[in-house]
Amino acid sequence: MDMKHLIEAARDARQRAYAPYSSYPVGAALLASSGKVYTGCNIENASYGLTICAERVALGTAVAAGEREFDAIVIAGGEGEPSMPCGACRQFMTEWGKPEMQVVIVSGQGHRRDLTLGDLFPHAFSPASLLEGAGK
């Protein structure tokens, strides 16, 4: 799948967001190493702490389908400059993504940032950190 189609999938997912409190819809499209694409949108809740970000919805859907390795994620936010993923989403992506995984963030106005997960979240706590801490 080329990046253009992944961006379109993220923007389509953004249209399905449930964001009545922030009025800030976000969509994500995740490319698994298998070649399959999984999408997600933010789902807000009146109890704000229970809100789920688009990135975590996409990853949760993919993992529930049996995927464990990912090559890229596109995150489509609002207008202006591309909005960076929150810390919880960065940590969640680190569970399955390698530092070289592509992270593309786009805005409604066409602004785009191309990063890797390692750029986005350097010195991340990962599954490998647990092994290192256990002396393995």
Low-confidence stretches: none
Q: Strand portion, in percent?
A: 15-25%
Sheet with the most strands, sense and barrel status: 5 strands, mixed
Strand line-up of the largest beta sheet: 2-1-3-4-5
Q: Please report the number of helical segments.
A: 5
> Average pLDDT, to the nearest integer?
94
> Portion of residues in helices?
25-40%
What's the overall geometry?
Answer: globular
* Beta strand count: 5
From the N-terminal CA to the C-terminal CA, the straight-line distance is: 37 Å
Q: How would you spell out the order of helices and strands?
A: HEEHEHEEHH
User: Roughly how many Å is the radius of gyration?
Assistant: 15 Å
Structural class: alpha+beta
Description:
This protein is 32% helix and 21% strand. The chain is of the alpha+beta class and 136 residues long. It has a five-stranded mixed sheet with strand order 2-1-3-4-5. The longest helix is centred in the N-terminal third of the chain and has 12 residues. The chain is globular.
Task: Produce the secondary structure layout.
Layout: H1 3-14, E1 27-32, E2 37-41, H2 54-64, E3 70-76, H3 87-96, E4 102-106, E5 112-116, H4 117-120, H5 127-133
Parallel strand pairs: 3-4
Antiparallel strand pairs: 1-2, 1-3, 4-5
Keywords:
alpha+beta; 21% strand; 5 strands; 136 residues; globular; five-stranded mixed beta sheet
In short:
This protein has 5 helices and 5 strands, in the order H-E-E-H-E-H-E-E-H-H. Helix content is 32%, strand content 21%.
